[in-house]
TrEMBL record:
UniProt cross-references to SUPFAM superfamilies, sorted A to Z: DsbB-like
Primary subcellular site in the record, as a coarse category: membrane
Identification of the protein by name: Disulfide oxidoreductase
Membrane-spanning residues: 5-23, 35-53, 60-79, 105-129
Keyword Secreted: no
Keywords tagged on the record: Chaperone, Disulfide bond, Electron transport, Membrane, Oxidoreductase, Redox-active center, Transmembrane, Transmembrane helix, Transport
Similarity remark: Belongs to the DsbB family. BdbC subfamily.
Localization in the cell: Membrane
HAMAP family (UniProt xref): BdbC (MF_00287)
Record-linked PANTHER family: DISULFIDE FORMATION PROTEIN-RELATED, SPBETA PROPHAGE-DERIVED DISULFIDE BOND FORMATION PROTEIN B
Domain of life: Bacteria
Length: 131
């Protein structure tokens, strides 16, 4: 078994379950950027599980671009929350504002920060899996 593939799969599962917990248990309504991050993360949980089971390292060709896009999107989302000057570039125009913070642990851990961490970890695991 390829350990980086397995670790990436566990990371994607944890991120998916975490997002479902925040919306379905805690009742947090996702903003538009949160939905896009979910669109990028949820398939990774399935694809990486299959790849880990089959020890298929070629999945890195498909997962790496998606994980990097997720990093960029969640990084932008995090900046919207933490840098007031970025709010002028906010894309969310209706519904829940993307600059809103349902959680703020230790003054810096928000939901987009958690997504950024997961996408970064998956990216690093994919780089390790290729070697």
């Amino acid at each position: 078994m390829n350990r980086p593939l397995f670790a990436a799969w566990l990371t994607a599962i944890a991120a998916m379950l975490g997002s479902l917990y925040f919306s379905e248990v805690k009742g947090f309504i996702p903003c538009s950027l949160c939905w896009y991050q979910r669109i990028l993360m949820y398939p990774l949980a399935l694809w990486l599980g299959i790849a880990a089971y089959r020890n298929d390292r070629s999945i890195t060709l498909y997962v790496l671009p998606i994980a990097v896009m997720g990093m960029l999107l969640s990084g932008y989302h995090y900046l919207l929350q933490k840098v007031p000057a970025m709010r002028g570039f906010e894309l969310c125009t209706s519904g829940v504002p993307c600059s809103g913070q349902y959680i703020n642990y230790a003054g810096f851990i928000t939901i987009p920060f958690l997504a950024f961490t997961a996408f970064t970890m998956i990216t690093l695991f994919m780089i390790l899996a290729r070697k």
